Amino acid sequence: MVKGVDHVGIAVRSIDEARQFYEALGLEVESIEEVKSEGVRVAMIPLGALRIELLEPLEDDSPVGRFLTKRGPGIHHICLASSDVQADSEGLRASGVSVLRDRPTLGAGGHLVQFIHPKSAGGVLYELAQESAELED
Question: What CATH architecture does domain 2-124 belong to?
Answer without folding.
Answer: Roll (3.10)
